[in-house]
Amino acid sequence: MKLELRGITKRFGSLVANDHIDLVVQPGEIRALLGENGAGKSTLMNVLYGLLQPDEGEILINDEPVHIRSPKDAINAGVGMVHQHFMLVPVFTVAENVTLGVERTRGLGLLDRRRARRDVLELSERYGLQINPDARIEDLSVGVQQRVEIIKALLRDASVLILDEPTAVLTPSETEDLFRIMRELQAGGRSIVFISHKLKEVQAIADTITVIRRGQVVAERPPSTSDAELASLMVGRSVQLRVSKAPAIPGDVRLSVRNLTVPGERGETAVNDVSFEVRGGEILGIAGVQGNGQTELSEAIMGLRPALGAVLLDGADLSGLSTRDRLRSGIGYVPEDRQEDGLVGDFSVAENLILDVYDRPPFASGLAMKPGEIRRSAVAQVAEYDVRTTSVSTPVGTLSGGNQQKVIVARELSRDNKLLLASQPTRGLDVGSIEFVHSQIVAQRDRGVAVVIVSSELDEIYALSDRIAVMYEGRIVGFCGPGTPEAELGLMMAGATAAQAAEETGPSPVGHRPSPDEALELPGATGGGMPADPGGPDLPSAGDTGPGQGKEPEL
Amino acid sequence: MSEQMPAAEPGPADSAPADSAPAHSAPAGGVSADTVTATTPDGAPKTPGGGRRRFSAGLIIEAITQGSSTVITILAIFLALVVGGLLIVFSNPTVLNDWNHFFSDPGVALTQTWQAISFAYTQMFEGAILNPATVSAAFHGGSIAAIFYPLSETCAKGTPLILTGLSVALAFRAGLFNIGAAAQWIGGAVVAVWLGFGVSLPPVIHVIVCVIGAFVGGAVIGWFVGLLKAKTGAHEVIVTIMLNYVMYSLLSYLLSTPTALQEPGQSNQIAPFIDANANLPHVGGPPPQAGVGFLIAVGAAAGVAWLLSRSTVGFQFRTVGASPSAAKNAGISVERVWIWAMLIAGGLAGLAASTVVQGTNTQLTFNSYGTYGTDGITVALLGRARPFGVVLAGLLFGALQVGGSYVEAATLGQVPADIFQVLEGLIVLFVAAPPLVRMVFRLRSAKGGMEAVAKGWNG
Questions:
Q1: DSSP H/E element including A276
Q2: End-to-end CA distance of chain B
Q3: Which of A13, A248, A277, A377 has minimal Cβ neighbours within 10 Å of its Cβ?
Q4: Closest residue of A to B321, CA-based?
């Protein structure tokens, strides 16, 4: 099926979200839409899916103009969409979810469950989705839930599949799985529109990359285009993909974690006897596939979760201190889930900028807060940290993800910190914002702050870390330097110790990571370690129970 | 955030100089901290204090056409009055009879209808707000105080409603649903009455002690709810509802026990009159006119407004109310906020009891708590949990109650006062369903269908 968008324009008040966008997707093509948050990618796809009506322009399918007024029209026209946030009923099984709305019945309105199961199994086998139709959604990992959404679209005969930021919620190995599935779908003749702001992903999977900036198509490029060119097209100026940072000058030990054991949500041991030290002026990157205890570790350091063992900051034991007292004793904390834990969406930017210092001078004296001072400081911080907001009284929930994160960073970095603990500091951010947040974190290090970065993005770990610790199943399996090859790190993330990993990979040049000295060299140039890169070694994925390893995608 | 939020995203900085990026790495070096004017990304200077929008005619028109919450509230009240008018007609046999002869004599039916409705509402206005007759009488040597009598009575009726409304509103802002204003009211009433007749104190001091006692009595009940929630995770809605029953029974027991609160020599559940020293002083005139209780209510509203918007405690309350997880991560103790918010909420409900038992020259009986607790919920809802809104809503309900009785008397029972209770219910119903009001008045929805799309489909 050939899909064509002609001159699509969508305005929200004075803002033009889509400005005469033309796009042609050929049958069997994987087309990437690349653009920063707020560039208009999702708006365009919502127009295509009938969630929004365009002000101008038309949609053609197989060269015939069609009117898509609702998602139902879109589905009938063969367009399927997998949203960033899944639309699944947690307590229903996979089969029940995929047939929801298109239930087939036998006489007397009885649901034809057997047929539903068979449909799911058939699609699952044909595209290698590995889905059990009887599993309940709430028991499935995010990656599998996404595949259920894909099955849902396939079952409705979608020949064009829109994937809206599908990798934002996935671990590296799940991303790899998704790419394999996308290739199989492509081989089956379906076209895919892949929305992303991650350069390496679109390079790895797309046939053609369409770059959107400020509501306009600025370029179409082949996937062989360099990172630097794509990034500058996306942002509209040249971007440094890698923060330039001087070698670390570690000082005294500031953070010392000793034999920390943290019980998890369900009583399991989420963090198991973890010990490490971080010196002032040093960045420790904690790498690992998500769900291996990193969240619990940072929450335990912040006193948000009870734990055994000791956390010492500049030699002082933090055990028994509340979160508030730990923040007071000199910790800057960027929580993993910024919308849930880091910000209050309904509060203004100014209020969010004082969320954990609201009762300290100069913002309050005694019980009374000082609105003038809060406002003055907020205006200054907004300018200093380049937060793009119409005013400091704008609710923070209306800002883009990058600007929300800048609000948190501004708040947490504006104090005299001894330790900066940042979890997934750039998750879901666009290139420009990542650059900014990274440079701010490095600046903290250079001021003698001990920095701990928890990230499941290897790129981020490499970009920032002076030392890397790898977590697997609640333990730190090893420490290594910033120049460790990606393949070796990948093995450690799957549970191998540092020595095993080094032995396994050998002195392979593939996947070698530039050391900080070669900072300006672009990471893409060395080619290593993109999840779907067929040249790289297979990562045994932690969540994979099936015999997925070594199974080559059919191309 | 999705891309459907236009205002938030001024777009990438195309025109920003390329060398601005490295400057970010030295935050201290960039923009001086004293800079008060921020610059938007495209370089246009913002006005100082950019957030405060100018209050202009255009803004008002926009608020009306888009249906801001204030406009919706006003329209909801109007809509309720219209429906109330229909009820007045339906309860009037004369008018209904005229409608039977509509086709032979339509004029009579319509005039009668109009007269019935306008008479009832005029009487209500005269009974609750201002009677023009008293104004003209004042010019001919009548009492000037009589002009303010209806308004004063409205304030008096509204007083406990404002206070229980504040109680519910404050808890609500901290994310708690206080269904237990009735129990807290009883807690306050019991303490105030006991201090009122049980102890003997000098004039001014006695009043103050009783008022404080009422606050404490309510606060203890509220505190207990907060404590249970904080320590055991029990849901406050269930706890407060159940505590209401406990307190009804406790009140019943105390009022039937002569050694406790029962008036000696009585077989009914009734407490003794409180000491004259413990009565709240009059302001306008003797009950049913407004007394110092009304000033307490207004003062409490001002206090709650300050607490919520200007104090560190209120900031904690609002943060926990808006996002408990963000509050926790910012080092705010969610549990402590629950306890304190319920304590203060309980105290406010206790004050409501004080204005009744100390302000209306009545004895405490088993039925004294009336519907103050549930009315508090509707008042808080109508006032949108904002202290100023709660005062207006409390006064409106006070006016409806005063006006209702006045209309009933003026129409010799033709228009029952119950209609005005229905009116209260209708107002709350319409306020709670903004889309309904928008539909009736054909207003554009505030943010277009877009908002729903963004929430429903793209987070």
A1: strand A269-279
A2: 7
A3: A13
A4: A344
Antiparallel, parallel or unpaired: β A110-111 and A105-106: antiparallel
pLDDT digits (tens, 9 = 90+) for B99-147: 888 888 888 888 888 998 999 999 999 999 998 888 888 888 878 888 8
Nearest to A51 among B36, B39, B457 (CB): B457
Q: Name the band, by pLDDT with cuts 50, 70 and 90, for residue A384.
A: very high
User: Could you give the CA distance from residue A27 to residue A71 in angstroms, rounded to a whole number?
Assistant: 21
Closest-approach residue (CA) in chain B for A321: B331
pLDDT of B458: 26
What is the crossing angle of helices B334-357 and B181-198, to 10°?
A: 50
Is residue A529 pLDDT above 80, yes or no?
no
**Do the Cβ atoms of B329 and A376 come within 8 Å?**
no
Question: Hey, of A8, A9, A12, A405, which one would you mutate to test binding to chain B, going by the most B CBs within 10 A of its CB?
Answer: A12
Count CA atoms closer than 13 A to A404's CA, side-chain side.
31
CB spacing of B36 vs A343 below 8 angstroms:
no
CA proximity to B297, closest of B133, B164, B112, B206: B164
CB contacts of A305 in chain B (<8 Å) are: none
B125, two tokens: 């206005």
Query: Which tokens go with B178?
Result: 């206080």
For residues B387 and B304, the answer to whether their CB atoms sit within 8 Å is yes
Could you tell me the sign of the dihedral formed by the alpha carbons of A259, A265, A266, A267, in that order?
Answer: positive
Select from A344, A360, A520 the residue whose CB has the most chain B CBs within 10 Å, as the one to mutate to test that interface: A344
Find chain B residues with C-beta within 8 A of A328's C-beta.
331
Find how far residue A254's CA is from the centre of its chain.
Answer: 30
**Cβ contact, residue pair B329, A389, below 8 Å:** no
In sequence order, which residues have a C-beta less than 8 Å from that of residue B100 and are 6 or more positions away? none
pTM value is 0.77
Between the alpha carbon of residue A420 and those of residues A279, A281, A298, A538, the distances in Å are 12, 11, 11, 34
CA angle A180, A185, A191 (to 5 degrees): 120
- Beta-strand ranges (E) seen in B356-399 are none
- Is the dihedral angle over the CA atoms B31, B36, B40, B43 positive or is it negative? negative
Find residue B291's DSSP bridge partners: B282
Instruction: Name the residue among B8, B39, B333 with its Cβ closest to that of A383.
Output: B39
Residues of A in contact with B16 (CB under 8 A): 237
User: Taking chain A, what is the end-to-end CA distance rounded to the nearest angstrom?
Assistant: 20
Shortest CB distance from A369 goes to which of B1, B49, B311? Answer: B311
**Which of B128, B149, B123, B125 minimizes the C-alpha distance to B137?**
B149
A515 burial class (0-12, 13-18, 19+ CB within 10 angstroms)? middle
d(CA B112, CA B365): 43
User: CB count, 10 Å around CB of B354?
Assistant: 31
Mapped onto helix, strand or coil, the DSSP state of residue A8 is strand
User: What is the average pLDDT value for chain A, to the nearest integer?
Assistant: 84
Q: Which amino acid is at A478?
A: G
Q: How many helices (H) and strands (E) would you count in chain B?
A: 19, 0
Least confident of A34-43, A187-196, A337-346: A34-43
Residues paired with B19 in a beta bridge: none
CB contact under 8 Å between B6 and A346, yes or no, is no
CA A382 to CA B289: how far, in whole Å? Answer: 53
The mean pLDDT value for B64-70 works out to 70
Whether A196 shows a pLDDT value over 80: the answer reads yes
